[in-house]
């Protein structure tokens, strides 16, 4: 480690702490932001630097996170733990755009990250920080993509990983990854909030490095979604960026990244940020529409398990970006999510349910006139289709309660004869 160029800043009082201070909360009990020396960044790199790195064969340049390293975490390159992540595709589907009432729609597929979700962008930064601190053990509470990602990066870095999962529903694609990558998986007799509470206590007591999204370095890595999306667009600012919201780390990160680019003078305006919540897990939507502080939702419920969160940790951070960009928060039903998912899948793109809240939200905002049909809209697809195969198969078999399978594509039973098969081919 040479000099530490960033600081940690309390999100409510603005009090600053040393960048290597081993804390996740300020003395006022609030979460922390990583604050970069933007004058130094401006003097060191420009957009051309990032474009030149696209042609490089070095992992740190090819990574869609570390390509922007001066704005993520300026550390010695030998300390970076990367797979490399990011460099995800931006899909244009005219057919899908037409289905949601737009002339054009671009979808950034974060399910194409190494472990199948955008969590890898945050985890590469978080695990790199763990390595810099000399941590040998890392932990998180999660039922899903965070644990899958942490398990993989910890394995790569030679660290012991502890995953705390709540009892009850667990998407098997995600649990399978945590087990396969060798994370010790501890099933807590309680809900997610309880698991998060316990993991924080354990980490403090046992000196294990915590990698939940209260860790501000994860947010720094996730900012790169915004940087890379703009780079995909040759640095042209779209009208809207739309994404799902659960714990709200991702929308916080995208908002923070965009505001930093504006401050650097690298873009001249912000795209409007729209955050989409599931109706059964909508505390941020309620807070936004009422103008009141967030009231947690008890027993949050949605088929989109990655956003089934009643008490999102990062809502104030997320609200900053939404407000600064004149954006909004909306909600969609599970039926709308699965209908949108059927469209995303049928377009040949495919994504897990939570991701498709994005497209359901776009469709709703176009229908009610909030988004004009000629707007340039970019959506973030957060996770891979195979993360939750149960949701797919049950949808196509028409087995999901409360959901109309309008695009059902169930397997057909068939006698083992040529004639019988031919009847199915028209
Ligand atoms: C984590 C996750 C989300 C929600 O992101 P937040 O940062 O918690 O708002 C959405 N979709 C997928 C696939 C995820 O893994």
What does this structure look like?
- There is one protein chain.
- The protein has 18 helices and 13 strands.
- With 426 residues, the chain is α/β, with parallel strands linked by helices.
- Among the domains are: 1-36; 90-116 and 218-396, Rossmann fold.
- The strands form three sheets. A six-stranded mixed beta sheet has the order 4-5-13-10-11-12, sandwiched between helices. A four-stranded parallel beta sheet has the order 8-7-6-9, sandwiched between helices.
- Helix 10 crosses helix 12 and helix 12 packs across helix 14.
- The longest helix has 15 residues, at 192-206.
- It is globular, with a radius of gyration of 21 Å.
- The mean pLDDT is 95.
- The structure holds pyridoxal-5'-phosphate.
- Residues 117, 119, 144-145, 244-251, 306-307, 352, 354-355, 382-383 line the site of pyridoxal-5'-phosphate (PLP).
Give the CATH topology of the domain at 90-116 and 218-396.
Rossmann fold
What percent of residues are in strands? 5-15%
**Whole-Å distance between the termini?**
65 Å
Total helices: the number is 18
Summarize model confidence as the mean pLDDT. Answer: 95
Largest beta-sheet details:
6 strands, mixed
Give Rg in angstroms: 21 Å
**CATH class category label of the domain at 90-116 and 218-396:** Alpha Beta
List the strand order in the largest sheet. 4-5-13-10-11-12
Bound molecules: pyridoxal-5'-phosphate
Principal-axes geometry comes out as globular
Q: Give the second-level CATH assignment, the architecture of the domain at 90-116 and 218-396.
A: 3-Layer(aba) Sandwich
Question: Helices and strands: which structural class?
Answer: alpha/beta
Number of strands: 13
| Helix content estimate | 25-40%
Low-confidence stretches: none
